[in-house]
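User: Here's a protein and a ligand (NAP). What would the complex look like?
Assistant: Let me lay out the input and then the predicted complex.
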Amino acid sequence: VFVNMSLTADGKIATANRVISSFGSERDQTHLLELRTRADAVMCGARTADMNEINLGPGPLQYRRRRLRLGLAEHNVRVVVSGSGSLDPQAHLFQHRFSPIVILTTERAGRARRQRLAAVADVVRVCGRREIDWPGTLNWLRKTLGVQSLLCEGGGELNGALFQADLVDELHLTFCPLIFGGREAPTIAEGLGASRLADAARFRLVSRRTRGAELFAVYRRAGSTGRGGD
Ligand SMILES: NC(=O)c1ccc[n+]([C@@H]2O[C@H](COP(=O)([O-])OP(=O)(O)OC[C@H]3O[C@@H](n4cnc5c(N)ncnc54)[C@H](OP(=O)(O)O)[C@@H]3O)[C@@H](O)[C@H]2O)c1
């Protein structure tokens, strides 16, 4: 599982009013497409899918060719997470039909919501009662759709759940020279978060490079989080 996010120098991924959430350079956009060439599936949370004109696809021909050279399918599977099923069936993503769209939800989504989403997606999978069972879900994605590499592109709430479950192997961050401020502006990991240092997801920096005004950093998981200890 790898996560890719752009963030401001004060760690925000969108403004507090959520109006601005895309602020990286063209180079950052290229970086996003390059990372997608390594992924069997690209995933995002319901609000990211609702609020942005994104299709989670591999992009232009050169990237699709690269996928084929790497032995991957020409188009990646697309996954959206919506525990309560509030995802908008009119979202831009659903207008682009080129690869399976999978919605991961829970029993909190009533029958009507699930049916509404089933009409626009290829699969709507109930992955838990109130919370997504992540290990079970990753297993299911691997077994049924051949997803061995999963790229998560936010938002903060979805990332937070993956960090909490200690399932993020690699983290790609693009630091942009902006300060958004704002207590309500989301960061790369929302949700309840850690309350003790021992609960922090830990990473080690494996590479960093500056291109133009942006810093591209890659981190890998640094083993156990030490959860359960002091
Ligand atoms: N700068 C960047 O790189 C970047 C990248 C992505 C997004 N963004 C921005 O970040 C903001 C969105 O972030 P966000 O944290 O508010 O939203 P998000 O994670 O995209 O979506 C949150 C919604 O997704 C579902 N969800 C997420 N994790 C879940 C889990 N573990 N189990 C069940 N459902 C889950 C829930 O949907 P239900 O309500 O249906 O249950 C939840 O309300 C937007 O402004 C977006 O544009 C920025």
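Summary: Confidence is low (pLDDT under 50) at residues 225-230.
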